[in-house]
Write a structure and sequence with these properties.
This protein has 6 helices and 5 strands; from the N terminus they run H-H-E-E-E-E-E-H-H-H-H. The protein is α+β, with helices and mostly antiparallel strands. It has 2 domains: 96 residues; 62 residues.
């Protein structure tokens, strides 16, 4: 018992087993863990609509051709593209293209009519959307171990750590593949 090792006659405290020094306490830890979980949801919430566009479930299909790219300095570019919709009832429009595009690049995409953005479709488009969605498991991978550690639970921590590392590596590979697909 911890109390007998320190010379105290009080029984060891149960519950949050945090380290020495200033700690947030039980309420603070709950708040931190909730914030951590919410942080993992943010990429999913912001990329779900774009994933639907990339999968072809939303938006107007068509072809985007990059017509101009203007250097803004410091490696940044402003690119414009001409979107020709497959549906003749929609008009051809000049829209903002991806800043990593180059003049003459053509690809299939879906136009989000509310935001006037074109999202690439097909395998490369879906993989590019997973660059952001893949961040969710990367953020959540360490959460089980951290909760077990904070609660002072020893059984299962090693397993949680191993699974967390495996999930992190797999998630990181998905993010890297998505970034490569987005820039191709």
């Amino acid at each position: 018992m911890i109390g007998s090792m320190t010379g105290s006659t009080r029984p060891a405290a149960r519950g949050w087993a945090m380290g020495r020094g200033r700690t947030p306490g039980p309420v603070g830890m709950y708040i931190l863990f909730v914030c951590w979980a919410v942080l993992g949801l943010v990429p999913v919430l912001f990329s779900t609509h774009d994933l639907k566009l990339a999968l072809g479930e939303a938006g107007a299909p068509g072809t985007l051709t990059v017509v101009s790219c203007e250097a803004l300095g410091k490696g940044r570019y402003d690119c414009k593209g001409r979107f020709v919709p497959d549906d003749d009832s929609l008009r051809t429009a000049v829209l903002q293209a991806s800043p990593d595009s180059h003049v003459g690049q053509t690809y299939r995409g879906r136009l989000d009519v509310e935001t006037d953005r074109v999202v690439r479709t097909g395998f490369a488009g879906v993989l590019a959307q997973f660059a952001l969605i893949g961040l969710a498991p990367l953020v959540w991978a360490g959460l089980p171990y951290s909760v077990l550690f904070a609660l002072g639970v020893r059984r299962g921590r090693k397993t949680a750590a191993i699974i967390g590392v495996v999930v992190s590596v797999a998630s990181l590979l998905v993010v890297i593949a998505g970034v490569i697909a987005a820039s191709a």
